[in-house]
Write a structure and sequence with these properties.
By secondary structure, the chain is mainly alpha-helical. The chain has four helices and two strands.
Length: 120
Amino acid sequence: MRYVAEHAAFLKGEGRFDALFTGWGTITYDADWAMWFNFHTPNRVGFSNPEVDKLLEQGRAAINPREAERFYWRAQEIVWNDAAWLWLFKHPEITGVNKRLKNFAPRVNEYIMVRDSWVE
């Protein structure tokens, strides 16, 4: 089995591989950021589906967020059924905070942001 030795090589599109174990999330909370980068032709994993390409293009062009959401949900459904990726798990986010830390809120995108927080 061929593999990519490091994630940076994968991101640069170097090498060919049979499998890749990685994590992925979106820092923008926007479906386009995760879907387009990974599943619109061309992409780093070699996935290609003309219907997904069209749906992602329609989602990106949609002005109404509800309309865009329909396109992304359908594209996601096709990607799931095509088994482009095998999602192994979603780890739960558990955040514990000392009550002295003020103005802090956990985020859903795995980032810990304390720029505007302080300790009393």
